[in-house]
Amino acid sequence: MADPAKRLPENVPGDFYVDETCIDCDACRQIAPNIFRDHGERSSVFRQPETPEEARRALMALVACPTSSIGTSRAYDARAGVEAFPERLDGDLYFCGFTSESSFGAWSYLLVRPEAEGGNILVDSPRFTRPLVRRIEALGGVRTIFLTHRDDVADQAKFARHFKARRVMHADDGAVRYGVEHILEGTEAARLDADLIAIPTPGHTRGHAVLLYRDRYLFTGDHLAWSPTRRDLTAFRSTCWYSWTEQTGSMRRLLDYSFEWVLPGHGRIHHASVGEMRAGLERCVAWMISVG
Q1: pTM
Q2: Mean pLDDT per 10-residue run, the chain (292 residues)?
Q3: Distance between CA 75 and CA 46 in Å, rounded?
Q4: 60, 32 contact by CB (below 8 A)
Q5: Contact status, residue 61 vs residue 78, Cβ threshold 8 Å
Q6: Cα(125)–Cα(170) distance, rounded to whole angstroms?
Q7: How far is residue 230's CA from residue 251's CA, in Å, rounded to a whole number?
Q8: Partners of 225 in the β-ladder
Q9: Do 107 and 59 meet the contact criterion of CB atoms below 8 Å apart?
């Protein structure tokens, strides 16, 4: 629970606030951008909710916060935030919410598919919370868990046990240690089924991989995201734990694929035409080469 005694002075007066335990994961700013802002290494409330919908978005940010750093000075019914997840983003694509501190607030996604087409896919892991689990059960459960890399595994083992799901992960990020059932190796793309392609993208970590669904949704982990500052696709130079050179090469190989959505674990989601995505990816590769 957020502590009013630790309320950050950058918050504007009012019911909602962020306390000093904030880890600057960006989740609240993505979920409720009209309420929360980045004031430098932490988030704060720059505008209090004025409508029921804004209050609902603020409550969604509150329950999604990985460190329980968002609080209210009076009682609110948090069910409005809890019941919003998983949140539909597009078609059968959902954002899970309930981010985990162990993955620094990384986003995870649920892709709902008929059993005949392979069943539902959980991409990376949220917190294992009963309300979320019940909602996922109602949507058909989880058949496969795709883990992009070792940073964002969170409660994957609990989800795998509960749903008896098969996990997919690259060997170079500790898949054996996690007990993963389907282990990727090397740098060649692997087709998981008729609609899913796993693409190894070493760089952020040695065994990082992304997942492409029907040439539309690209689940990118910590490899590729949209930058609201640069207004373009980007990679994270300061958090490249393995090799920037390898990551640049991995980014270049993504030019062989088509996609309309970039769905990262960290950074912003982006939706654009295939042509716009390719142009943005080309600029990203050129920028990566320029910064070395």
Answers
A1: 0.96
A2: 96 98 97 96 97 97 98 94 98 98 97 97 98 98 98 97 98 97 97 97 98 98 96 96 98 98 97 98 98 90
A3: 20
A4: yes
A5: no
A6: 16
A7: 18
A8: 234
A9: no
